[in-house]
Amino acid sequence: MIPTTITKVTVTPVAFVDPPLLNTVGVHQPYALRAIIQIETDGGLRGIGETYADTAHITRMEAAAEAIIGLDVFALNRIRDTIDNRIAQLTVTGGDGVAGMITTASTTDRVFSPFEVACLDIQGKALDRPVSDLLGGAVRDRVPFSAYLFYKWAGHPGAADDDWGEAIDPAGLIRQAHRMIDDYGFTAIKLKGGVFAPDEEVAAIKALHAEFPGIPLRLDPNAAWTVDTSVRVAAELDGIVEYLEDPTPGLDGMAEVAAEAKMPLATNMCVVAFDHLKPAVLKNSVSVVLSDHHYWGGLQRSRLLGGICDTFGMGLSMHSNSHLGISLAAMVHLAAATPNLTYACDTHWPWKTEDVVKPGALRFVDGAVPVPTGPGLGVEIDEAELERLNQQYLDCGIRDRDDTGYMQSIDPTFENTSPRW
Ligand SMILES: O=C([O-])[C@@H](O)[C@@H](O)[C@H](O)[C@@H](O)C(=O)[O-]
Ligand SMILES: [Mg+2]
């Protein structure tokens, strides 16, 4: 077989234009950051991965990149161990890349993930098989995603309006949902909440329900509500949402809400690492885990998570952050090879207008992405775009995602409190 020893690894930060999407910790900055990992091997095969790009995360990844030179791309356990040892020697802190919303994920899993994806890309190319085959084989040939609605301003302050326009009320959200469904064919809708008072967001969900009868809905305030507020909202939305996502902070708070709410509770905030699973199960805190290979340690460990969810009768779907095409390809292969994926996955895809991958490999058909069947991930870097988006990173001045700081630069009275209502 073609040799697959790692000879070179590069970490390239990029910035891509992002609209002013509102959430409970603030608002998206004008650019979202990602880091692109490229691995080269002695047999000439190359693989790619994608992850967050906060400064501390980049420092860890650069150290990891150096440490794995000379290892074989099939030796994933050894690669993870090497990365674990190497980053234990560093003193940097922070850098989760998710605006402080998910802080307790495993650092090793977060750093290992994009390297694992790049290695799997190379393994697939060496074996002439898609990544989904390396994960046990696809059980579906298309992966459904949901329309991810955000309250948003018409444009970033001081800049021209973007072509989505303003959405700060039900009418704006309905316009947004129509465009997303017309363009992508989504058959489920998620609303990012925690922005306005709960009653306003309940009214928005009810308006979406009336406009799109029969389409499964979800509301995610990112732990902006107290237990009492969450229980009240759950009663209001009974029969209307398929699940309520992270209404309140922590495993104990979620367990209290879960005991009262009729619908399932989902999370990408209080169960974000393997050691959260046992207490979550014992306390009955959640019934759906939103996996995310970027912090669950890559695709193989995400399948392990899927198995644990299956064992304990928990549902499984997929969380998203602002991302590019390499991440979407990885998410699609993983979702294809996860038998117990019980809901349409999240994606920020419709919000981006730039990418580092060549267009055409990934497309949405009736709200789902057909699973690539070629070798590896099935997406390729567009070198010119990678260089341009790296220059955009160098020029934009943003080095860490900071939704709260950006919001406070616009509204100095804004406070990031959880729970807020
Ligand atoms: O993009 C955002 O603003 C989201 O709020 C994101 O940061 C969350 O991590 C995520 O989408 C979620 O479901 O909580
Ligand atoms: Mg969420």
From TrEMBL:
Cofactors required: Mg(2+)
CDD domains with a match to the protein in the record: D-glucarate_dehydratase (cd03323)
Pfam families in alphabetical order: MR_MLE_C (PF13378), MR_MLE_N (PF02746)
Gene Ontology MF annotations: glucarate dehydratase activity; metal ion binding
Record field: catalytic activity: D-glucarate = 5-dehydro-4-deoxy-D-glucarate + H2O
Keywords per UniProt: Lyase, Magnesium, Metal-binding
Catalytic residues (UniProt): K192 (proton acceptor), H319 (proton acceptor)
Catalytic activity, EC: 4.2.1.40
UniProt xrefs under PANTHER family: D-GALACTONATE DEHYDRATASE-RELATED, GLUCARATE DEHYDRATASE
Family: Belongs to the mandelate racemase/muconate lactonizing enzyme family. GlucD subfamily.
Protein name: glucarate dehydratase
Organism ancestry: Bacteria, Bacillati, Actinomycetota, Actinomycetes, Mycobacteriales
